[in-house]
Amino acid sequence: MSTRPTRTLEPVPNPHPDREYEVEIECPEFTALCPVTGQPDFATITFKYIPGPYIVELKSLKLYLWSFRDEGHFHEDVTNAILKDFVDFIKPRKLQVTGKFNVRGGIYTTVRAEYEEGQ
Amino acid sequence: MSTRPTRTLEPVPNPHPDREYEVEIECPEFTALCPVTGQPDFATITFKYIPGPYIVELKSLKLYLWSFRDEGHFHEDVTNAILKDFVDFIKPRKLQVTGKFNVRGGIYTTVRAEYEEGQ
Amino acid sequence: MSTRPTRTLEPVPNPHPDREYEVEIECPEFTALCPVTGQPDFATITFKYIPGPYIVELKSLKLYLWSFRDEGHFHEDVTNAILKDFVDFIKPRKLQVTGKFNVRGGIYTTVRAEYEEGQ
Amino acid sequence: MSTRPTRTLEPVPNPHPDREYEVEIECPEFTALCPVTGQPDFATITFKYIPGPYIVELKSLKLYLWSFRDEGHFHEDVTNAILKDFVDFIKPRKLQVTGKFNVRGGIYTTVRAEYEEGQ
Amino acid sequence: MSTRPTRTLEPVPNPHPDREYEVEIECPEFTALCPVTGQPDFATITFKYIPGPYIVELKSLKLYLWSFRDEGHFHEDVTNAILKDFVDFIKPRKLQVTGKFNVRGGIYTTVRAEYEEGQ
Amino acid sequence: MSTRPTRTLEPVPNPHPDREYEVEIECPEFTALCPVTGQPDFATITFKYIPGPYIVELKSLKLYLWSFRDEGHFHEDVTNAILKDFVDFIKPRKLQVTGKFNVRGGIYTTVRAEYEEGQ
Amino acid sequence: MSTRPTRTLEPVPNPHPDREYEVEIECPEFTALCPVTGQPDFATITFKYIPGPYIVELKSLKLYLWSFRDEGHFHEDVTNAILKDFVDFIKPRKLQVTGKFNVRGGIYTTVRAEYEEGQ
Amino acid sequence: MSTRPTRTLEPVPNPHPDREYEVEIECPEFTALCPVTGQPDFATITFKYIPGPYIVELKSLKLYLWSFRDEGHFHEDVTNAILKDFVDFIKPRKLQVTGKFNVRGGIYTTVRAEYEEGQ
Amino acid sequence: MSTRPTRTLEPVPNPHPDREYEVEIECPEFTALCPVTGQPDFATITFKYIPGPYIVELKSLKLYLWSFRDEGHFHEDVTNAILKDFVDFIKPRKLQVTGKFNVRGGIYTTVRAEYEEGQ
Amino acid sequence: MSTRPTRTLEPVPNPHPDREYEVEIECPEFTALCPVTGQPDFATITFKYIPGPYIVELKSLKLYLWSFRDEGHFHEDVTNAILKDFVDFIKPRKLQVTGKFNVRGGIYTTVRAEYEEGQ
């Protein structure tokens, strides 16, 4: 598992905490390094969540994703790590994180991890 | 939560109140202001509902959506506020409102809220 | 509810009445008038049904849809009216009628009505 | 119902009869005649099946579909007839046959029939 | 059933074995020979799996798929054989392998096989 | 050549008569009748013109196109007739009219006519 | 060169013989036989022409294309033969015929032949 | 011609004034009001230019386009007015401005104006 | 430049040698090896030619392209080599060969070479 | 103009220097920083060139583009700078470099620069 530097995601109070609704956030500009070759990797990271007490502040999300730019990460690991951070900071009722990585060696990889409160 | 000015949606009697059917209305020309920067935001608002006693009059819906043009609204909040107004005025059996907002800072946000009579 | 003129849909015997199968018929050339402004409206009408004793004769369906050309109809009403006629004449086990109307005032409307025998 | 000439589909032993798997075969080059006007009709025929003891030999399937070229067939009937032949010769556990016919008189027709072993 | 040469897929430890997540790997560059005519066949092979103790190392997967290049294989058989190998080496909780083969004789064939641990 | 009823297109003064610029107007809701069978025909009519002293008023263009609704017209003829009317009323420097007609009998027809001032 | 049976295309008087305009006719339902294997071939035949004294009557064009259904034709030859027939019967000022044939053996073939009056 | 308020576009020195190169800027979020009905209009404004001594500063372009938000403008006029402003402030060697307006009354309008230095 | 093994393309007499017409042949199933790494490369090879005395026999073209399967070739070189062979065997009046290679290292490469008789 | 660090592109001898042919290379994974805000920018850089004595070695091109990852660059400037470097190292007869940058502030920017030997 990758060593994770200190990152933060800023929670803001959910304006409609009484209602179950879904927020989907697509970020096509994720880039990190391949931990084996050091070469840049590119991905689209998508969050789909049902807010609990908080929603995520978008600028902090942008900064959060940029913080991976110079680090080495494996596809399967980084997608799960992002899921964990989002759960820790934003405490959603439900969350799905998808990492759709650019083709490498003629192969396209997508990783999809899910969290549900109380499971 | 945003302060909501007085807006109205005009209900017209449902011509087939005995039958459960679905109406989907897509409005790609929604615009409001960002409450933080004051800059224009753009979105497609989609309504999907099963009418109860009323259906929505389309011209009043158009005017309703225009009334947001010069106001500041957060994505998550305004989508839920529109849902509430539609429920108050049109009293549908079931309703889903989706706000698909234009990219900002390389990030695409979609908010989807739902209502069901008696829940 | 609109006053419906006398229209007919010609039933032909179902060649495989012992089997549940689905027929989907898409008609992108439906046009009627707006009952308020008198201006032409355009729609794609789609039928999806499981035949009972009959299937619909296609030429009679074409003539049936043409018969709306010079009449005023509201979107929600006409879609339900077409459903009723199809049920009366063809007696399907199950039927879904969808009317996807062309954009008006920047708004796209779709109406979807369903029928199931014995419900 | 159309009179069916003698046609055959060649079964070959299923190489993995112990496992439920799905085979989908799309044939966009089906043509027959309209039984009313004698004019050519065109369709894409798609088979989706879970093999039982056999899988279908593709060359025999091609010849089978060509054998309709000079015959008159109604859309609903021919799709069900093809389903029956496939069941008789290949004995699948489950089968769906879809006939998607080219537009005629501004109308697109699709027929979908299904078979399940033991039902 | 085809005679399978000795092939390997390299397992690497799953970095998040405590969590059910999905990995999808699409490989559009699969080629083998037709066992009847000796002519090249082309396919896109897609793996969708929930990892158990291991995830698959991508370079070994690429080499694995290349090893079919000079061998004759039937569509239905090779898709199931690849499923078996993946299960043997990577021991996933759940796996779906899809082989989408290029058109031959005007016919498109797709084979989809599934595995679930403990079934 | 079809007998043309009295139709009008309203010219409004070109706000920038000193400059050559292009206006393209696409009207996907044109319908007339087939002069042989009396059945409805549907087309998209597109105008591409360089204004001279006038530009066309859009509401009058809409009414102009609706006036064909109950008349019989051949594809080649009506496209040229529309070109002539536009030239008579709006006096463009250059004009291209395209009529893209819906499929009939498995055949798609497009007619494209052009005018240039002084030729 | 193939032996050509007697076929006809019906010319009708050009309603606007004084003007150069273009007619494009797309026919996606052409089928003939492969002269080597006897197997059906499928193509989309497109005509693009500037009419001279005549335009082509569409029903006769449909019948003309059907007349190839049971004959063997090579791609390059049949496209040129169709061009010659069209020139003989319709006497266009300019003509382009394109035959876009369905994939065979993993290969897609398109043939494009042109005629210009007086060349 | 519309009365134009005082607007500015900020020129920045062209970093490669010795070379002819092209810059294309697409702005899908333009909105103004209809000068007749007061209803919002929406358009995509695209600039394609060969810089002379300056290039346009993007933030000032964004503010420039926002300044139309509460004003009434005709399609043909506003596109030419934007062209003039760009020429006045940025002094390009060549410029094309395209306004692609959203559908109104079933009609799509696009206006394209051009400027070339010394003409 | 690569050492070229003995390959052949079979010419057949042009059935319409008196007329300039174009033949386009798209072959999406080309594969060779990378001369540096030995790994498979994939490409779509497209021929666009105006026949002289001959046209190419399609089966021989398929075999010709297969003959590269086990050889190492650079993108720029192999595209030009194929052009030369086609000119030598088929003697076209004009020829364009395009090799569109699959992505490698995040980079897509296309090579386009042309020949014209007498230049 | 940006200060350019020392970068290199490796030339390899053109295998067919006697012939004019075109090479197109698309690189969708370019990223640099905004020189004003320090935020990451993303672009697709495309090279289209007619080789002179050399062609570009692809691995060196990949490394060349990566070298911009941590530097600040303006869109117009970096596109021209890349053009200059390619000309210096590879000495093409003709070259076009296009930088298509991701949306920022609702605005899409594309820069296209060209070089031709002897001009």
UniProtKB/TrEMBL annotation, chains A, B, C, D, E, F, G, H, I, J:
The family this protein is said to belong to: Belongs to the GTP cyclohydrolase I family. QueF type 1 subfamily.
Role according to the record: Catalyzes the NADPH-dependent reduction of 7-cyano-7-deazaguanine (preQ0) to 7-aminomethyl-7-deazaguanine (preQ1).
Residue positions of the active site: 34 (thioimide intermediate), 41 (proton donor)
Keyword Nucleotide-binding set for record: no
Gene: queF
UniProt-listed Pfam families: QueF
Keywords from the UniProt entry: Cytoplasm, NADP, Oxidoreductase, Queuosine biosynthesis
Taxonomic source organism: Paenibacillus residui
Name of the protein in question: NADPH-dependent 7-cyano-7-deazaguanine reductase
Any one GO MF annotation of this record: preQ1 synthase activity
